[in-house]
Amino acid sequence: ERERGGSGVRERERGGSGVRERERGGSGGGPCAEARAGAKMLLVLAEEHKEHLGFLTRVDAAVVGEFCRIAVEFLKKGSNPKIFEGAARKLNVNTETVQNGVEGLMYLMTESSKMMISEVDFQDSVLVLGFSEDLNKLLLQLYLDNRREIRQILSELAPDLPHYHNLEWRLDVQLASRALKQQIKPLLTLKLHLEQNGRRNASVFQTDPATLLHLIRKLEQALNEMKTNHCRRIVRNIK
Amino acid sequence: MELPEYALKGLQLLADPSHFSDKTFHILVEAAFESLLNPQTDGATLDHAELGNLDLTLVKQCNVAIATCVLEAGKQNADASTLSTVLEDCRLGGERIDLFCATYQKNKDKVESLLGGLARYPSHIIDASWRLEYHIRNNHLHKVNQPAYLLTLNVENGSRPTQDVTFSCTMEQLQDLLGKLKDAAKSMEKASQM
Of A24, A112, B34, B66, whose CB count within 10 A is highest? Predict the structure, then answer.
Protein backbone atom coordinates (compact mmCIF):
# COMPACT_ATOMS: atom_id res chain seq x y z
CA GLU A 1 0.00 0.00 0.00
CA ARG A 2 2.78 2.35 0.79
CA GLU A 3 4.00 2.10 -2.77
CA ARG A 4 0.83 3.73 -4.11
CA GLY A 5 1.47 6.90 -6.07
CA GLY A 6 5.17 6.14 -5.94
CA SER A 7 5.49 8.37 -2.92
CA GLY A 8 5.09 7.89 0.79
CA VAL A 9 8.17 7.04 2.76
CA ARG A 10 10.16 6.05 -0.32
CA GLU A 11 10.09 9.74 -1.23
CA ARG A 12 13.30 10.14 0.70
CA GLU A 13 15.21 8.24 -1.94
CA ARG A 14 14.35 10.77 -4.67
CA GLY A 15 16.67 13.67 -5.46
CA GLY A 16 14.13 16.10 -3.95
CA SER A 17 15.07 17.70 -0.69
CA GLY A 18 18.37 17.02 0.96
CA VAL A 19 18.57 16.89 4.68
CA ARG A 20 21.73 16.32 6.64
CA GLU A 21 22.42 16.16 10.28
CA ARG A 22 25.25 18.14 11.78
CA GLU A 23 26.65 18.35 15.22
CA ARG A 24 26.63 21.86 16.57
CA GLY A 25 29.73 22.77 18.58
CA GLY A 26 32.13 19.95 19.40
CA SER A 27 34.59 18.48 16.95
CA GLY A 28 32.73 18.15 13.68
CA GLY A 29 30.03 15.80 12.52
CA GLY A 30 30.02 12.24 11.31
CA PRO A 31 27.98 9.29 12.43
CA CYS A 32 29.80 8.83 15.74
CA ALA A 33 28.58 12.21 16.86
CA GLU A 34 25.25 10.78 17.97
CA ALA A 35 26.76 8.30 20.38
CA ARG A 36 28.17 11.04 22.54
CA ALA A 37 25.67 11.93 25.18
CA GLY A 38 24.26 15.44 25.03
CA ALA A 39 25.48 16.11 21.49
CA LYS A 40 23.28 18.50 19.58
CA MET A 41 21.69 17.01 16.52
CA LEU A 42 20.37 19.55 14.07
CA LEU A 43 18.72 18.90 10.80
CA VAL A 44 20.40 20.99 8.15
CA LEU A 45 17.77 21.76 5.57
CA ALA A 46 18.69 22.24 1.94
CA GLU A 47 17.73 25.55 0.31
CA GLU A 48 15.30 23.85 -1.99
CA HIS A 49 13.65 22.14 0.94
CA LYS A 50 13.33 25.44 2.79
CA GLU A 51 11.71 26.98 -0.25
CA HIS A 52 9.21 24.16 -0.51
CA LEU A 53 8.27 24.50 3.12
CA GLY A 54 8.10 28.28 2.75
CA PHE A 55 4.78 27.79 1.03
CA LEU A 56 3.26 27.05 4.43
CA THR A 57 3.72 30.66 5.52
CA ARG A 58 1.64 31.88 2.63
CA VAL A 59 -1.52 30.03 3.59
CA ASP A 60 -3.69 30.31 6.66
CA ALA A 61 -3.55 28.12 9.75
CA ALA A 62 -6.43 25.87 8.75
CA VAL A 63 -4.74 25.01 5.47
CA VAL A 64 -1.45 24.30 7.20
CA GLY A 65 -3.26 21.99 9.58
CA GLU A 66 -4.82 20.23 6.64
CA PHE A 67 -1.45 19.83 4.90
CA CYS A 68 0.03 18.38 8.07
CA ARG A 69 -2.79 15.89 8.27
CA ILE A 70 -2.36 14.92 4.59
CA ALA A 71 1.42 14.58 4.96
CA VAL A 72 1.10 12.11 7.82
CA GLU A 73 -1.69 10.25 6.03
CA PHE A 74 0.53 9.87 2.96
CA LEU A 75 3.40 8.59 5.08
CA LYS A 76 1.19 5.93 6.55
CA LYS A 77 -0.80 4.92 3.51
CA GLY A 78 1.03 6.14 0.42
CA SER A 79 0.41 9.35 -1.46
CA ASN A 80 -2.48 10.27 -3.70
CA PRO A 81 -1.53 12.88 -6.32
CA LYS A 82 -5.14 13.83 -7.01
CA ILE A 83 -5.29 15.56 -3.64
CA PHE A 84 -2.58 17.96 -4.76
CA GLU A 85 -4.63 18.98 -7.79
CA GLY A 86 -7.76 19.58 -5.76
CA ALA A 87 -5.95 21.65 -3.16
CA ALA A 88 -4.05 23.64 -5.80
CA ARG A 89 -7.28 24.64 -7.51
CA LYS A 90 -8.88 25.75 -4.26
CA LEU A 91 -5.86 27.82 -3.22
CA ASN A 92 -5.26 29.18 -6.69
CA VAL A 93 -1.65 28.06 -6.95
CA ASN A 94 -0.07 25.48 -9.17
CA THR A 95 -0.11 21.80 -8.30
CA GLU A 96 3.64 21.56 -8.02
CA THR A 97 3.76 24.10 -5.22
CA VAL A 98 1.25 22.16 -3.19
CA GLN A 99 3.03 18.91 -3.86
CA ASN A 100 6.38 20.34 -2.82
CA GLY A 101 4.88 21.74 0.34
CA VAL A 102 3.30 18.49 1.42
CA GLU A 103 6.30 16.41 0.42
CA GLY A 104 8.56 18.84 2.20
CA LEU A 105 6.57 18.25 5.34
CA MET A 106 6.73 14.51 4.84
CA TYR A 107 10.48 14.63 4.43
CA LEU A 108 10.89 16.83 7.50
CA MET A 109 8.92 14.31 9.52
CA THR A 110 10.73 11.23 8.26
CA GLU A 111 14.21 12.66 8.71
CA SER A 112 13.43 13.84 12.22
CA SER A 113 11.90 10.50 13.12
CA LYS A 114 14.74 8.57 11.55
CA MET A 115 17.30 10.43 13.64
CA MET A 116 15.04 10.47 16.66
CA ILE A 117 16.07 14.06 17.32
CA SER A 118 15.10 15.62 20.60
CA GLU A 119 12.34 18.23 21.04
CA VAL A 120 14.88 20.97 21.55
CA ASP A 121 16.89 20.01 18.49
CA PHE A 122 13.77 19.82 16.38
CA GLN A 123 12.68 23.27 17.45
CA ASP A 124 16.13 24.71 16.77
CA SER A 125 16.27 23.05 13.37
CA VAL A 126 12.93 24.49 12.38
CA LEU A 127 13.82 28.01 13.54
CA VAL A 128 15.80 28.62 10.34
CA LEU A 129 12.60 28.40 8.37
CA GLY A 130 11.46 31.65 9.93
CA PHE A 131 7.99 30.38 10.72
CA SER A 132 5.63 31.94 13.22
CA GLU A 133 5.56 30.77 16.83
CA ASP A 134 2.27 28.98 16.23
CA LEU A 135 3.50 27.16 13.13
CA ASN A 136 6.63 26.03 14.96
CA LYS A 137 4.50 24.66 17.79
CA LEU A 138 2.27 22.89 15.28
CA LEU A 139 5.20 21.23 13.53
CA LEU A 140 6.73 20.12 16.83
CA GLN A 141 3.43 18.59 17.92
CA LEU A 142 3.10 16.85 14.59
CA TYR A 143 6.56 15.37 15.02
CA LEU A 144 6.01 14.22 18.58
CA ASP A 145 2.61 12.75 17.86
CA ASN A 146 3.71 10.73 14.88
CA ARG A 147 7.34 9.85 15.27
CA ARG A 148 6.74 6.46 16.90
CA GLU A 149 4.51 5.32 14.07
CA ILE A 150 6.81 6.74 11.41
CA ARG A 151 9.74 4.89 12.96
CA GLN A 152 7.65 1.74 12.90
CA ILE A 153 7.08 2.20 9.16
CA LEU A 154 10.77 2.94 8.54
CA SER A 155 11.78 -0.19 10.40
CA GLU A 156 9.88 -2.22 7.83
CA LEU A 157 12.21 -0.96 5.09
CA ALA A 158 15.28 -2.44 6.71
CA PRO A 159 16.62 -5.81 5.51
CA ASP A 160 14.39 -8.54 6.81
CA LEU A 161 15.44 -12.02 7.86
CA PRO A 162 12.85 -14.70 8.35
CA HIS A 163 11.65 -14.10 11.86
CA TYR A 164 9.70 -16.07 14.39
CA HIS A 165 5.96 -15.77 14.30
CA ASN A 166 4.55 -18.71 16.24
CA LEU A 167 5.12 -22.30 17.33
CA GLU A 168 2.48 -25.01 17.44
CA TRP A 169 3.24 -28.38 18.95
CA ARG A 170 1.68 -31.79 19.25
CA LEU A 171 2.62 -34.76 21.35
CA ASP A 172 2.45 -38.07 19.52
CA VAL A 173 3.30 -41.65 20.30
CA GLN A 174 4.43 -43.63 17.31
CA LEU A 175 2.99 -47.13 17.52
CA ALA A 176 4.17 -48.74 14.31
CA SER A 177 5.82 -48.20 10.98
CA ARG A 178 6.09 -50.37 7.91
CA ALA A 179 9.47 -51.61 9.04
CA LEU A 180 8.74 -52.05 12.73
CA LYS A 181 5.34 -53.17 13.92
CA GLN A 182 5.25 -52.73 17.66
CA GLN A 183 6.69 -49.52 19.02
CA ILE A 184 6.11 -47.01 21.75
CA LYS A 185 8.04 -43.98 20.62
CA PRO A 186 7.08 -40.58 22.07
CA LEU A 187 7.50 -37.81 19.54
CA LEU A 188 6.97 -34.11 19.58
CA THR A 189 5.73 -32.69 16.30
CA LEU A 190 6.36 -28.97 15.86
CA LYS A 191 5.05 -26.45 13.39
CA LEU A 192 7.27 -23.41 13.23
CA HIS A 193 5.65 -20.33 11.70
CA LEU A 194 8.08 -17.82 10.23
CA GLU A 195 7.49 -14.51 8.52
CA GLN A 196 9.60 -12.61 6.02
CA ASN A 197 8.73 -9.49 4.07
CA GLY A 198 5.11 -9.89 5.02
CA ARG A 199 4.92 -13.46 3.77
CA ARG A 200 4.41 -16.33 6.18
CA ASN A 201 5.37 -19.93 5.87
CA ALA A 202 5.39 -22.86 8.22
CA SER A 203 7.67 -25.87 8.51
CA VAL A 204 6.99 -29.10 10.30
CA PHE A 205 9.63 -30.78 12.41
CA GLN A 206 9.80 -33.43 15.01
CA THR A 207 11.99 -34.12 17.97
CA ASP A 208 12.35 -36.57 20.83
CA PRO A 209 12.00 -35.94 24.57
CA ALA A 210 15.74 -35.85 25.27
CA THR A 211 16.46 -33.35 22.51
CA LEU A 212 13.51 -31.24 23.61
CA LEU A 213 15.01 -30.83 27.06
CA HIS A 214 18.38 -30.05 25.50
CA LEU A 215 16.81 -27.36 23.29
CA ILE A 216 15.05 -25.82 26.27
CA ARG A 217 18.31 -25.63 28.21
CA LYS A 218 20.12 -24.05 25.27
CA LEU A 219 17.45 -21.44 24.63
CA GLU A 220 17.21 -20.56 28.31
CA GLN A 221 20.92 -19.98 28.23
CA ALA A 222 20.45 -17.65 25.26
CA LEU A 223 17.70 -15.70 27.02
CA ASN A 224 19.73 -15.34 30.19
CA GLU A 225 22.58 -13.74 28.27
CA MET A 226 20.70 -10.46 28.22
CA LYS A 227 20.77 -10.38 31.99
CA THR A 228 24.54 -10.67 32.27
CA ASN A 229 26.62 -7.68 33.34
CA HIS A 230 28.33 -7.56 30.00
CA CYS A 231 25.11 -7.11 28.06
CA ARG A 232 23.60 -4.77 30.63
CA ARG A 233 26.62 -2.50 30.36
CA ILE A 234 26.35 -2.33 26.60
CA VAL A 235 22.62 -1.61 26.65
CA ARG A 236 23.19 1.12 29.23
CA ASN A 237 25.92 2.84 27.28
CA ILE A 238 24.67 2.79 23.75
CA LYS A 239 22.04 5.48 23.36
CA MET B 1 5.88 -65.65 10.88
CA GLU B 2 5.99 -65.96 7.09
CA LEU B 3 9.25 -66.05 5.20
CA PRO B 4 9.76 -65.93 1.42
CA GLU B 5 10.71 -69.09 -0.45
CA TYR B 6 14.35 -68.20 -1.02
CA ALA B 7 14.84 -67.56 2.70
CA LEU B 8 13.32 -70.89 3.68
CA LYS B 9 15.54 -72.68 1.16
CA GLY B 10 18.59 -70.89 2.51
CA LEU B 11 17.74 -71.89 6.09
CA GLN B 12 17.29 -75.50 5.03
CA LEU B 13 20.73 -75.48 3.47
CA LEU B 14 22.07 -73.94 6.64
CA ALA B 15 20.57 -76.79 8.64
CA ASP B 16 22.47 -79.43 6.69
CA PRO B 17 25.60 -80.67 8.49
CA SER B 18 27.10 -81.82 5.22
CA HIS B 19 27.21 -78.24 4.05
CA PHE B 20 28.07 -76.58 7.35
CA SER B 21 29.83 -78.06 10.34
CA ASP B 22 28.76 -76.79 13.76
CA LYS B 23 31.76 -74.50 13.77
CA THR B 24 31.14 -72.98 10.35
CA PHE B 25 27.45 -72.65 11.20
CA HIS B 26 28.36 -70.59 14.25
CA ILE B 27 30.79 -68.43 12.30
CA LEU B 28 28.32 -67.79 9.49
CA VAL B 29 25.49 -66.85 11.85
CA GLU B 30 27.73 -64.38 13.73
CA ALA B 31 29.02 -62.93 10.47
CA ALA B 32 25.51 -62.55 9.09
CA PHE B 33 24.33 -60.62 12.15
CA GLU B 34 27.46 -58.46 12.04
CA SER B 35 27.09 -57.45 8.41
CA LEU B 36 23.39 -56.75 8.93
CA LEU B 37 23.80 -54.55 11.96
CA ASN B 38 27.07 -52.92 11.03
CA PRO B 39 26.67 -51.49 7.54
CA GLN B 40 30.31 -50.39 7.39
CA THR B 41 31.54 -53.96 7.31
CA ASP B 42 29.94 -54.45 3.92
CA GLY B 43 30.37 -58.16 3.47
CA ALA B 44 33.92 -58.24 4.78
CA THR B 45 32.75 -60.43 7.66
CA LEU B 46 32.09 -63.20 5.21
CA ASP B 47 35.77 -63.19 4.30
CA HIS B 48 36.45 -65.43 7.26
CA ALA B 49 39.21 -68.02 6.78
CA GLU B 50 36.98 -70.91 7.79
CA LEU B 51 34.37 -70.00 5.21
CA GLY B 52 36.99 -69.70 2.47
CA ASN B 53 36.74 -73.22 1.17
CA LEU B 54 32.96 -73.22 0.99
CA ASP B 55 31.02 -72.51 -2.14
CA LEU B 56 30.55 -68.73 -2.37
CA THR B 57 27.04 -68.93 -3.76
CA LEU B 58 26.03 -71.17 -0.90
CA VAL B 59 27.46 -68.82 1.67
CA LYS B 60 25.69 -65.85 0.10
CA GLN B 61 22.37 -67.63 -0.07
CA CYS B 62 22.52 -68.58 3.59
CA ASN B 63 23.63 -65.11 4.60
CA VAL B 64 20.58 -63.60 2.88
CA ALA B 65 18.30 -66.20 4.48
CA ILE B 66 19.56 -65.39 7.95
CA ALA B 67 19.22 -61.67 7.37
CA THR B 68 15.68 -62.03 6.04
CA CYS B 69 14.68 -64.17 8.99
CA VAL B 70 16.19 -61.77 11.53
CA LEU B 71 14.56 -58.70 9.98
CA GLU B 72 11.15 -60.32 9.76
CA ALA B 73 11.38 -61.47 13.38
CA GLY B 74 12.36 -57.96 14.43
CA LYS B 75 9.55 -56.38 12.43
CA GLN B 76 6.92 -58.63 14.02
CA ASN B 77 8.51 -58.52 17.47
CA ALA B 78 8.57 -62.32 17.33
CA ASP B 79 9.21 -64.19 20.56
CA ALA B 80 11.62 -67.09 21.00
CA SER B 81 9.05 -69.81 20.40
CA THR B 82 7.87 -68.29 17.10
CA LEU B 83 11.45 -68.10 15.88
CA SER B 84 12.16 -71.66 17.04
CA THR B 85 9.13 -72.95 15.17
CA VAL B 86 10.26 -71.41 11.90
CA LEU B 87 13.76 -72.85 12.30
CA GLU B 88 12.35 -76.29 13.24
CA ASP B 89 10.25 -76.27 10.09
CA CYS B 90 13.46 -75.70 8.14
CA ARG B 91 14.89 -78.78 9.82
CA LEU B 92 17.55 -77.14 11.97
CA GLY B 93 18.83 -79.27 14.83
CA GLY B 94 18.17 -78.35 18.47
CA GLU B 95 21.64 -76.99 19.13
CA ARG B 96 21.65 -74.81 16.03
CA ILE B 97 18.21 -73.43 16.92
CA ASP B 98 19.41 -72.52 20.43
CA LEU B 99 22.49 -70.78 19.04
CA PHE B 100 20.47 -68.84 16.51
CA CYS B 101 17.88 -67.73 19.08
CA ALA B 102 20.54 -66.75 21.58
CA THR B 103 22.34 -64.62 19.02
CA TYR B 104 19.02 -63.06 18.06
CA GLN B 105 18.18 -62.21 21.68
CA LYS B 106 21.59 -60.68 22.16
CA ASN B 107 21.12 -58.40 19.14
CA LYS B 108 17.39 -57.77 19.40
CA ASP B 109 17.72 -54.13 20.50
CA LYS B 110 20.05 -53.32 17.65
CA VAL B 111 17.68 -54.91 15.16
CA GLU B 112 14.78 -52.84 16.49
CA SER B 113 16.87 -49.69 16.33
CA LEU B 114 17.77 -50.42 12.75
CA LEU B 115 14.19 -51.02 11.74
CA GLY B 116 12.84 -48.12 13.77
CA GLY B 117 15.02 -45.72 11.84
CA LEU B 118 13.56 -46.76 8.52
CA ALA B 119 10.62 -44.50 7.94
CA ARG B 120 9.60 -41.26 6.36
CA TYR B 121 9.37 -38.56 8.92
CA PRO B 122 9.56 -34.80 9.07
CA SER B 123 13.04 -33.46 9.62
CA HIS B 124 14.20 -34.28 13.08
CA ILE B 125 15.67 -31.49 15.19
CA ILE B 126 18.94 -32.58 16.71
CA ASP B 127 20.43 -29.35 18.01
CA ALA B 128 20.14 -25.59 18.11
CA SER B 129 22.58 -22.70 18.13
CA TRP B 130 21.99 -19.06 18.89
CA ARG B 131 23.56 -15.65 18.44
CA LEU B 132 22.74 -12.52 20.39
CA GLU B 133 23.17 -9.17 18.64
CA TYR B 134 22.49 -5.59 19.51
CA HIS B 135 20.94 -3.76 16.61
CA ILE B 136 22.23 -0.19 16.65
CA ARG B 137 21.05 1.33 13.43
CA ASN B 138 20.29 0.70 9.77
CA ASN B 139 20.19 2.99 6.77
CA HIS B 140 16.50 3.73 7.28
CA LEU B 141 16.44 4.17 10.99
CA HIS B 142 18.93 5.42 13.55
CA LYS B 143 18.98 4.71 17.28
CA VAL B 144 17.26 1.36 16.95
CA ASN B 145 19.01 0.02 20.08
CA GLN B 146 17.29 -3.33 20.25
CA PRO B 147 18.70 -6.74 21.10
CA ALA B 148 18.03 -9.44 18.51
CA TYR B 149 18.56 -13.18 18.51
CA LEU B 150 19.50 -15.35 15.55
CA LEU B 151 18.59 -19.00 16.02
CA THR B 152 19.55 -22.01 13.94
CA LEU B 153 17.83 -25.35 14.33
CA ASN B 154 20.00 -28.22 13.13
CA VAL B 155 17.94 -30.97 11.55
CA GLU B 156 18.52 -34.37 10.02
CA ASN B 157 16.35 -36.75 8.05
CA GLY B 158 17.94 -40.16 7.68
CA SER B 159 20.20 -40.01 4.68
CA ARG B 160 18.11 -37.38 2.93
CA PRO B 161 19.70 -33.96 2.46
CA THR B 162 18.33 -31.35 4.84
CA GLN B 163 18.47 -27.63 5.30
CA ASP B 164 18.97 -26.17 8.75
CA VAL B 165 16.44 -23.47 9.53
CA THR B 166 17.66 -20.07 10.64
CA PHE B 167 15.48 -17.25 11.86
CA SER B 168 15.68 -14.12 13.94
CA CYS B 169 13.60 -13.19 16.95
CA THR B 170 13.26 -10.52 19.60
CA MET B 171 13.55 -11.27 23.29
CA GLU B 172 9.78 -11.45 23.61
CA GLN B 173 9.51 -13.86 20.71
CA LEU B 174 12.23 -16.06 22.20
CA GLN B 175 10.34 -16.06 25.48
CA ASP B 176 7.21 -17.12 23.64
CA LEU B 177 9.05 -19.92 21.85
CA LEU B 178 10.67 -21.10 25.06
CA GLY B 179 7.36 -20.98 26.94
CA LYS B 180 5.73 -23.18 24.35
CA LEU B 181 8.56 -25.71 24.38
CA LYS B 182 8.34 -25.87 28.15
CA ASP B 183 4.59 -26.53 27.94
CA ALA B 184 5.32 -29.36 25.53
CA ALA B 185 7.92 -30.81 27.91
CA LYS B 186 5.51 -30.66 30.84
CA SER B 187 2.84 -32.38 28.82
CA MET B 188 5.35 -35.02 27.75
CA GLU B 189 6.27 -35.66 31.36
CA LYS B 190 2.64 -35.99 32.39
CA ALA B 191 1.99 -38.42 29.55
CA SER B 192 4.94 -40.57 30.52
CA GLN B 193 3.51 -40.95 34.02
CA MET B 194 0.19 -42.29 32.83
Answer: A112
